[in-house]
């Protein structure tokens, strides 16, 4: 079992995050709406929330993001100080779904997850301000 765990850990460590996160025009429009609705001024912050929102789903995104590269965000700007964490979460999600952990798959999944998450956020009627984003992180108590 430890050999399997070691191989998984090695595979997860091989591919570094992209230098630049490239997103399409569909994301640009969605981010504009989210900025206006939430008051969050920075696209990178909204993209982080979108990534996490999508990764919370047990499945991979099935709809491809727009093929253009209208929005480009440097990885370090996108991820801030938690870059390793975001990249590891994406890799683990892909690994759990049996996807290859190569550069193409990971970069595609990153783009698709951000697109799906942004679409979920913009479609959420409760998403009215920055507090609405924070409320996503609060797990309700069960009786």
Q: What fraction of residues sit in β-strands? A: 5-15%
The main sheet orders its strands as 1-2
What is the straight-line distance between the termini?
Answer: 38 Å
Helical percentage: 55-70%
- Rounded mean pLDDT score: 87
The shape, in one word, is globular
The structural domain count equals: 1
Derived from helix and strand composition plus strand pairing, the structural class reads: mainly alpha
Poorly predicted sequence stretches spanning 5 or more consecutive residues: none
Radius of gyration: 16 Å
CATH fold descriptor: Arc Repressor Mutant
Please name the fourth-level CATH homologous superfamily. Answer: DNA sulphur modification protein DndE
Class, according to the CATH hierarchy?
A: Mainly Alpha
Folded structure, characterized:
With 143 residues, the chain is mainly alpha-helical. The chain has one domain (15-126): Orthogonal Bundle (Arc Repressor Mutant). It contains 7 helices and 2 strands. It has a two-stranded antiparallel sheet with strand order 1-2. The longest helix is centred in the last third of the chain and has 21 residues, at 103-123. It is globular and about 40 Å long.
């Amino acid at each position: 079992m430890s050999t399997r765990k070691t191989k998984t850990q090695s595979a997860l460590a091989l591919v570094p995050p992209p230098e630049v996160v490239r997103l399409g025009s569909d994301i640009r429009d969605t981010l504009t709406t989210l900025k206006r609705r939430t008051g969050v001024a920075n696209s990178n912050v909204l993209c982080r929330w979108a990534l996490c929102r999508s990764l919370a789903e047990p499945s991979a995104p099935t709809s491809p993001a727009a093929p253009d590269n209208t929005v480009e965000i440097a990885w370090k700007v996108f991820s801030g100080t938690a870059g390793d964490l975001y990249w590891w979460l994406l890799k683990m999600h892909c690994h759990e779904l049996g996807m290859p952990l190569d550069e193409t798959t990971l970069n595609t999944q990153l783009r698709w997850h951000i697109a799906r998450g942004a679409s979920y956020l913009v479609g959420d009627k409760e998403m009215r301000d920055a507090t609405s984003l924070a409320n996503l992180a609060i797990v309700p108590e069960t009786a």
